[in-house]
Write a structure and sequence with these properties.
The complex is a heterodimer of chains A (462) and B (31). Chain A is an all-alpha fold and 462 residues long. Chain A has 18 helices and no strands. Chain A is globular, with a radius of gyration of 22 Å. The longest helix of chain B is centred in the middle third of the chain and has 27 residues, at 4-30. Classes of the chains: A mainly alpha (462), B mainly alpha (31).
């Protein structure tokens, strides 16, 4: 009963905060980038809340439960990517004064490359949305076990849409404050204190578990490198953070907020989530699925209202990211697809962004429901998009020879090589994403060098 | 029995939480 009351209280709080904030949304830009007026600390909380979702909390704990200390690779890789993104890209992105990645590419390279990138980007954020929507359902099931997964997904998606469709990024930044405080208290304070006290800290865990779990390379060096590169690089071109960077008051605040969110919240949060999974090896050995170690730990540590509060941290983590990804998908579909086919004015754009968000979420409910494990969904579907976007993104900001023809060839090679290598069963021992990224980067360097000379002759140099 | 590094780890978690809540309160009061 306590779990149901806490879950309901959280849902009501998030709806009230979100809907109250939504009254400030008057234009399409208010919805998409909060009028480019997000205060510094509000943006810090919001960026962290968007970064930390099901993949971060349950994924890192699951990895550390399955592989021991070496499972921290996922979290550390993702956080390092976010820090690098702040250091290298954030300022330049905000100075470009755009809203989405395809818009940046359209302004820098041209329409054809932007159209292809927008299809890949939407595919990528949609795959994350499907994973997050599924997580929303699985977490609600922990609160109310009598619910079937589909109904649970449906209830949570309606609540998530309830406030975010009305208020867009304005509502998201306000609700993210509540989310991040619940998450930090739950994952970085209460659960670690209880679990460490119960098992005798790191020394107690090491004494009780198989020595292989203490081995920092237990997962295997190649898999660790592959995982770190994947989540790190994905973190560098994160679409949800992109709109928050665009929503900052100025370029310096954009960079500062990204680095602060990553260093002060994201990185430590990931490490703590991993520690919870690591402690789980000693506290709850032989769990059927490593994916459920995080909720299982909470269940064992605290009952009643306290246990329900700890679980609501998980709910908050997934809700923040799910809302953010749903919003990003809607904004990209409206601005980079519908607007390209039929140009939209202010009010129509606002309406289209909202409708696109609802349609994307409904589609994600079905994909998420029939999908597999949480991290699996993210890694398999997002790989071709990331392999294409990452080198092009770097080229736009740091390479004068970057041009549209080179970008088009790069995109084609990224998609074909990633999917082809994956279809062959990843024969070289590295992941399909890393293989695709290597192919697309080499292609970009060769193709842009060749096509840049051609452009220079025409007098259209970058 | 918790060791020195356990207290360091748990202390970092608590410090970050306190700092974030403090910042949120300050921001709300300023408004």
């Amino acid at each position: 009963m306590a779990k149901v009351i806490v879950a309901l209280a959280y849902m009501v709080a998030i709806l009230v905060i979100g809907i109250l904030a939504s009254r400030k949304v008057k234009t399409a830009d208010d919805f998409a980038v909060a009028g480019r007026q997000i205060p510094f600390w509000t943006n810090v909380y919001s960026m962290a809340s968007a970064q930390i979702g099901a993949g971060a909390t349950m994924g890192v704990a699951s990895m550390c439960y399955a592989y021991g200390i070496s499972g921290q690779t996922l979290g550390i890789g993702a956080a390092l990517g976010a820090i690098l993104s702040g250091l290298v890209f954030a300022k330049k992105i905000r100075e470009a004064n755009v809203t989405t990645i395809p818009e940046l590419i359209r302004n820098s390279l041209g329409k054809r490359a932007a159209d292809l990138i927008s299809i890949l980007s939407i595919f990528s954020v949609f795959s994350i949305l499907a994973g997050q929507v599924r997580s929303l359902g699985t977490i609600l099931q922990i609160f109310i076990p009598s619910l079937d997964l589909f109904t649970a997904i449906l209830i949570m998606s309606v609540i998530m849409l309830g406030y975010s469709v009305a208020g867009g990024l304005v509502s998201a930044t306000k609700t993210d404050k509540l989310n991040i405080i619940i998450m930090v208290l739950s994952v970085m304070v209460i659960i670690p204190i209880i679990s460490f006290t119960r098992i005798g800290g790191l020394g107690g865990i090491a004494a009780k578990v198989d020595p292989k779990y203490v081995n920092p390379t237990n997962m295997g060096v190649s898999q660790m490198i592959s995982m770190m590169l994947y989540f790190g690089l994905i973190g560098m071109v994160n679409n949800e953070n992109f709109i928050r960077i665009c929503g900052a008051k100025n370029a310096n605040e954009a960079r500062g907020a990204t680095i602060t969110a990553s260093l002060l919240i994201y990185l430590p949060y990931m490490i703590f989530a991993g520690l919870i999974g690591y402690a789980g090896i000693a506290l709850i050995p032989n769990l059927e699925s490593s994916d459920s170690i995080f909720p299982a730990m909470i269940d064992q540590m605290a009952g009643g209202v306290a246990g329900a509060f700890l679980l609501s941290g998980l709910l908050a983590a997934v809700m923040g990211t799910a809302a953010s990804v749903a919003m990003t998908t809607g904004i990209m579909v409206a601005r980079d697809v519908v607007n390209r086919i039929k140009p939209l004015d202010g009010n129509k754009m606002l309406l289209t962004q909202r409708i696109a968000m609802i349609v994307a979420t409904v589609a994600a409910i079905f994909v998420g429901y029939f999908g597999r494990s949480i991290v699996g969904i993210m890694e398999d579907v997002g790989a071709p998009a990331a392999a294409a976007i990452i080198p092009i993104f770097c080229g736009i900001f740091f390479w004068k020879k970057m041009n549209e023809k080179g970008a088009l060839v790069t995109i084609a090679v990224a998609v074909i090589s990633t999917l082809g290598y994956w279809a062959l069963g990843s024969p070289l021992g590295i992941s399909h994403f890393i293989f695709g990224l290597i192919c697309s980067t080499i292609t970009m360097i060769i193709a842009c060098n060749l096509t840049y000379e051609e452009k220079a002759k025409e007098g259209v140099g970058m | 029995m918790l060791g020195f590094w356990d207290y360091v780890i748990l202390g970092i978690g608590c410090l970050i939480a306190v700092y974030l809540i403090y910042n949120m309160v300050i921001e709300a009061v300023k408004k």
